[in-house]
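Case study 2.
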Amino acid sequence: MNTNILIVGVGGQGTLLASRILGSLAHMLDKECKLSEVHGMSQRGGSVVTHVRVGDKVLSPLVSEGETDFILAFEKLEALRWRHYLKKDGILIVNNQEIMPMPVITGEMKYPQDIFDILEKEGIRYEKINALDLAKQAGTTKAVNTVMLGVLAKLLGIDYDKIQKAVENTVKEKFIEVNKKALDLGYNN
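Prediction:
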C-alpha cells in the first residue's frame, strides 16, 4: 500500500526540499519513492505543488484527486486550493500563515478569512500549526518546511531518529542544526 502526500505552498517556502527529505527517508526505510514537482509562478510567490508517493511498489509519481493521505499546506490559502486532492480519511496539515497572492495585493480579490470554517463545514480532518512561529524559535523563518515535516513524521509514526537522519542527509551542512531544531519543534508540538 502506498502513502500519497501532496506538499503545497508558494515559491520560496521549501516545498521541493521537503519532498527531497521525504525521498531520503523513504530510501532509508527501504521503500520506493517517486516525486513530481510542479512549478507554478514560483519565482513570483505563486503556487507550487509537489507529489510524493511512497510504498513497496510505486508506479506513478502523480497523486490523483481524492487519493491523498496527507496534504502539507505551507500556507492557508493553498490548503483551500488543494483540499480536493485529500481522500475521505486523509489529513490536511495546515500552516496557519497567510501569504498574499498577487490578486489580493492588487486589490482584485480579498484573502478568505473563513478557511478553517470551510474545512470544518466540509468535514475535512486537519491539524493547524503555527509553523512560522516554530521556525522562528528554531532560528530562521525558512525552516517552516522542516517544522511541517516534523508534524507529518509524528502523524505517520516515523521514528524521530530516522526523519532527523533524512534531514541531515538532505539539507546543506551549514543549515543542518537550525533544521534539526525546527524538526524537533514540529515533531514534539
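Residues 34 and 61 are 5 Å apart (CA to CA).
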